[in-house]
Sequence to fold (236 residues):
Amino acid sequence: MKIITVSSYEEMSRQAANRIAAQVISKPNSVLGLATGSSPVGTYRRLIEMYEAGDLDFSEVTSINLDEYLGLDGTHDQSYRYFMQENLFRHINIRPENTYVPSGVAADIAKECKEYDARIDAYGGIDLQLLGIGLDGHIGFNEPATTFQTGTHVVDLHPSTITANARFFADESQVPRKAITMGMTAIMQAKKVLLIANGPAKKEIVEKAFYGPVTPEVPASILQLHRDVTVIFGET
Ligand code: F6R
Fold:
């Protein structure tokens, strides 16, 4: 595991984007596992800049997102599909049909979960998985638990996650209580994992996850068992 500490969010974003760019340049038909939230916004901004400068081509890339709120469809401005459209997809030449975000409104959610995993398998797994980390150590929406559900599944969001994400909604009562998330198997089977985190509030959980014991109580700690993980922590 490589843990890189940099001084700022901008530097974290620059280094993360450079790694994703290297992946896409070396394998133009890469399968990228993507995340939402505030951590990757700057990374996506830099990828867009590289695309606009003619340095990156996403026409053969496939993206598979980690998660989606249950009950929000892609037109809801807090859905993760909408986030991806606004923060990345509509600015680059990725083919819309090659972008996957779990559906939070599928009529049969169990079937949606199964199909999501089957799709990841059909693509031969994820080449590079970008992750953020929750204050409780979640990755995707795999919340602390005594056992992990391994495949894509529905989760009850942890109270601290609901509070943390309330900043994006009118108030906390509007935050969905459930989400659909890729499970640990697909994340752990990704060929490379790139986790980004920044700010003093994330320092403690980053230390716990990567210097503490491996335990389902800190889901990101499982990444210590992955053979190609880079963590970039921005101090501010
Ligand atoms: C988002 C996701 C979450 C976030 C985490 C950190 O797709 O999977 O695990 O990465 O909640 O969120 P931010 O970056 O907003 O602090």
